[in-house]
Amino acid sequence: MRIDSVPPDLSGQPVRSGPGMLETMTPLLLPFRGTWIVENSPARRVPSHGTTAFGSSHAIDFVAVRDGRTAPVRDWRTAVATEPVDRFYAFGQEILAPAGGLVAAVQDGVPDLVARRSPVARMRYALTQLSRARQGARGLAGNHVILDLGGSFLVVAHLRNGTVAVRAGETVTAGQPIGRCGNSGNSTQPHVHLQVMDRLDPFAATGLPILFRDYVLHHPDGTEQFVARGLPDTGTVVEDRSLSGRAGAADGAPR
Hints:
- The chain is mainly β.
- 11% of the residues lie in helices and 29% in strands.
- The longest helix has 8 residues, at 119-126.
- The radius of gyration is 17 Å and the shape is globular.
- It starts with a strand and ends in a 15-residue tail after the last strand.
């Protein structure tokens, strides 16, 4: 398997960049181990989730994959009904702090929902989205952690019920476990959602641009491409390389 090294820039990803833009993007580490596929990337469009509400303009999602699949099973429920969340590779995987900071807020105790890959099940679920929005952060982000990065706030959302491992007021380091991947909040399949905002209150916040450090792109032809700084596009498979070989947390914010 060939590994190509990419210089420290946006590594060819389709991001609108200009003088000084890299300096304005919040650098993060990928918050997981193993291979995950990118969904709803701001490299593809902004706002990435179709709205600027709740500080989500530059949000990004990741779903765990193995051999191109998010779950080892596909059956009649995949086509027309809901599915148990524990059949998905992402569910229960350890989630790591993407940057060092002060824990500004946490939410735990939100039940994990059944998964919905079926278009029929997704359509029914979409009809209830307004009611979740009315619940605020609990209904949208589910179990989550918000880190104060010193001038900006990082949200790690949709954690598994009962697994949030940090408390408000605690200082965490990049790479420190903060919970496990779940399917709580506004989520149809176990995944992790990241976004950076300019203030703690998502109802008043503006989303901020992000980039990631020290990861590998897994190409369909089996080759790998190391990226020092970049923003992976929707549909690409990525894997963290900053934490490889480390048993614990990284030091503070990403270098």
